[in-house]
Predict the structure.
Amino acid sequence: MSEHETSRDGQQALPPLLRFLGLHLALGAAIGVALVSLMLLGNLAGLKKLIVEAQNPFIPLLLLYSFNIITFSSVAMGIGIMTMPLEEVETEEQAQESSDRLRPAPIESKARRRSMADLP
């Protein structure tokens, strides 16, 4: 679909790159949530005990989950972007067409060729 085409339900479809980044964002967020949940369930370094005994456990939980989601989503999107192919693969016909168009232009030079005897 081009950028102006609409999907079957009448809404504009997302560009492929945004869908690609959104998928990696969701994957990274899921990994971040899973990691923090495992850390809390396993009581890693007494973290669960510290949060439970805090006056307001909502703030540490919010910070722990949000920063891990941001970190792992950024990593997942970065990995997705860095592993994308650089260019589309050309067919032999497309390669021949591009080589036909790109030819060096001849340029006349007014300088004359000098020999070693002409050097000072």
Residues 1 and 8 are 12 Å apart (CA to CA). The chain has a mean pLDDT of 85. Helices lie at 16-41, 47-53, 58-82, 92-101.
